[in-house]
């Protein structure tokens, strides 16, 4: 009888321990498709401290045209330990004269300047442009869903780190979104008032058709 009680208490603690692990974190199992609630969890017994460390933000990305910048994401796909925890990070390297083009996310972004000088800003739904020069150590908040941008106005490469209140913040850049697809040029012209030559130029740059 005494043995049975002790055994039951032990198994109770054992099941509390594993249940606690499951609610504390849920490292994504990328073998399964993502759902609106994130990825399924990897088996806790297969995890090590390495699963909770990501070194991908330690080196710059490859600067790419046409905006002369590089973004590296630490999100639920690249850093699966973020799954279900409601946050992520990114590294932005912006070459001299380059920019992170006008874009938006589903969630808010907090940007921390690490090197260089940029103009950063967002456009409110009241169409007011809130923009300013940022230097090393400055942080700026870009409220969820609003269009925003960063432009390197300094004489050296700029480096910034951003955090987001989602493990999967999404990224939609305005000009590529308009021009990198088969939306007919005439429709683009009528919904933007851009002229035809400009639309053809943008479609050429971003690989769009029609
Ligand atoms: C997790 O892995 C352990 C050890 O391989 C195994 O005993 C256990 O059944 C697994 N749990 C789940 C939920 O798959
Ligand atoms: C940068 O480009 C090199 C050469 O193409 C490639 O090996 C490397 O993985 C790239 N780095 C990133 C962060 O994409």
Automatic annotation (TrEMBL):
SUPFAM superfamilies: RmlC-like cupins. Its main location: secreted. Pfam families: Cupin_1. Keywords: Apoplast, Disulfide bond, Manganese, Metal-binding, Secreted, Signal. Belongs to the germin family. One of its GO terms (cellular component) is apoplast. GO terms for molecular function: manganese ion binding. SMART domains: Cupin_1. It is found in: Secreted, Extracellular space, Apoplast. Disulfide bonds join 26-41. Mn(2+) binds at residues 103, 105, 109, 148. This is Germin-like protein. Residues 1-19 form the signal peptide. Residues 55-200 form the Cupin type-1 domain.
